[in-house]
């Protein structure tokens, strides 16, 4: 306990002499876990944030992820917390309680305007003529009716590409320029295959937009798409997940995601007027690919929905934030992980996992592939067919060669004896 008194003695000495000290001086006297984070300012998604940087360590990562309101930015490759969600003092104290040394020397203590934070970002070096071309390219993308998020992503990729080529005239661009740029981006930014494909798609659109350039769009190759089988919950795991979701609003959201096979964006934008309890239907407007569709409202979901509605009284949307606006997708992902942990589910689970589970269970229940395609809103049957690789309805009918071998060897011996022969110790 002597070290504790030492701290207070030093603080008393500082205060007695009228010395102004900063909170990080306390760390000098605390037991050091060896962990260190650096706080900096970040402007992300049109808001001011605290970026939390550190040398990668599994345990330290877990401590940081345990902070309230913490999020991960793929674009900036860092954890961050919006300034409106937490004060610098609270964030510092929360980290300090975990025994983490905090360096926040680069964070200003005064309130910084959004325009000032924007100025801290390093601007791209692009001449005015090329800037005009990029702006025209964005208008071209909007004319193709691409989504706002797609336009923003393609703009970022092409702006980086134009900066990369420097003063070289755009009409003189070749596929070699694209190859060098893609190689640098993939190596430097460690793009995933999906991001790599988006990058090439953006430049292919740019090549079509510049017909006088030397780019041969047809020869720009994208890496093949990864063919991963989606993670799926069993029916028992779905029930356990809902039972372990204690909050009524959270349980209603997860039940709707599974029972209707909806995407997270569709649930967030779902309005109360689009839920028809009498006809047991949910009308989904402007889903992925700008398609409308109708899905089934599960009868077992209706009592939960009525209880939720009478308790929370939402005004416009099925699920709303405290101010009545659109709910946060990050919040849904967060409470889903909490519920999965309580239910003892070890699988990597996301809101889309519930949609995958919905489709797989429909096929296992004997629903035709064409109907499943309509319910999911898929444009191509090939997209829906991936669930036939997971559904166990037909797989269970296939006999393992091991079972066949044992049956042929033991003849009329019962199944219990077969298991004994395999499970007993074999010493040669």
What does this structure look like?
With 428 residues, the protein is of the alpha+beta class. It folds into four domains: 90 residues, Translation Initiation Factor Eif1, CATH 3.30.780; 92 residues, Tyrosine recombinase, N-terminal domain (DNA polymerase, domain 1, Orthogonal Bundle); 155 residues, Intergrase catalytic core (hpI Integrase, Chain A); 31 residues, no CATH class. The strands form two sheets. Strands 3-4-2-1-5 form a five-stranded mixed β-sheet. Strands 6-7-8 form a three-stranded antiparallel β-sheet. Helix 6 packs antiparallel against helix 7. The longest helix has 18 residues. The chain is globular, with a radius of gyration of 28 Å. The N terminus is likely disordered.
